[in-house]
């Protein structure tokens, strides 16, 4: 990996960023820069690197941008085939397909749970405000 620069833009609590960091460890890719992003104040680098989705993880490899955790994993396996660690995906095409299926399945469930959690949080906040308004005739703000 001499002469190659790897930077991972992430958020510590993101399961998708954790997935990429685990893959880096499996591959033996320890010489990378990790840049923690804020969920509330996204950096110019993140917005420039991922202008479509504006979210982490984003991998910067020698000036090239790769977004989305599953795509990053596939890229790392192909870009660093001789890395010291193990491959991320199996070499057999069928086994790779099965691994991709389960990764996609987990992604869908995690996104659904995140969406439900955010929706419930917004709903609870709205209901609290509505209840306060109805009971006391005023907003808490």
What does this structure look like?
It is a single chain. With about 140 residues, the chain is of the alpha+beta class. It folds into two domains: about 5-90, Glutaredoxin; about 90-140. Helix content is about 50%, strand content about 10%. The protein is built from four helices and four strands; from the N terminus they run E-H-E-H-E-E-H-H. The protein has a four-stranded mixed β-sheet, with helices on one face. Strand 1 (about 5-10), helix 1 (about 15-25) and strand 2 form a beta-alpha-beta unit. Helix 1 (about 15-25) runs parallel beside helix 3. The mean pLDDT is about 85.
Describe what is shown at a glance:
This protein is an alpha+beta fold.
What series of H and E elements makes up the topology?
EHEHEEHH
What structural class is derived from the secondary structure elements?
A: alpha+beta
Total strand segments: 4
Q: In percent terms, what proportion of residues is strand? A: 5-15%
What count of domains describes the coordinates? 2
Q: What fold name stands as the CATH topology of the largest domain? A: Glutaredoxin
End-to-end C-alpha gap: 55 Å
In the sheet with the most strands, the strands line up as 2-1-3-4
Radius of gyration over C-alpha positions, nearest whole angstrom: 20 Å
CATH architecture of the largest domain: 3-Layer(aba) Sandwich
CATH class call of the largest domain:
Alpha Beta
Binned, the helix content reads 40-55%
């Amino acid at each position: 990996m001499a002469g190659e620069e790897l930077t991972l833009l992430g958020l510590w609590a993101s399961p998708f960023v954790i997935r990429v960091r685990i893959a880096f460890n499996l591959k033996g890719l320890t010489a990378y820069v990790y840049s923690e992003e804020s969920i509330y104040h996204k950096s110019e680098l993140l917005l420039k690197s991922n202008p479509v989705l504006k979210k982490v993880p984003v991998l910067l490899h020698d000036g090239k941008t790769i977004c989305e955790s599953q795509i990053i994993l596939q890229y790392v396996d192909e870009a660093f085939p001789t890395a010291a660690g193990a491959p991320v995906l199996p070499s057999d095409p069928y086994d790779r397909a099965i691994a991709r299926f389960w990764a996609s399945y987990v992604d869908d469930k995690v996104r659904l749970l995140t969406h439900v959690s955010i929706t419930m949080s917004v709903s609870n906040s709205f209901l609290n405000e509505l209840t306060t308004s109805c009971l006391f005739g005023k907003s808490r703000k």
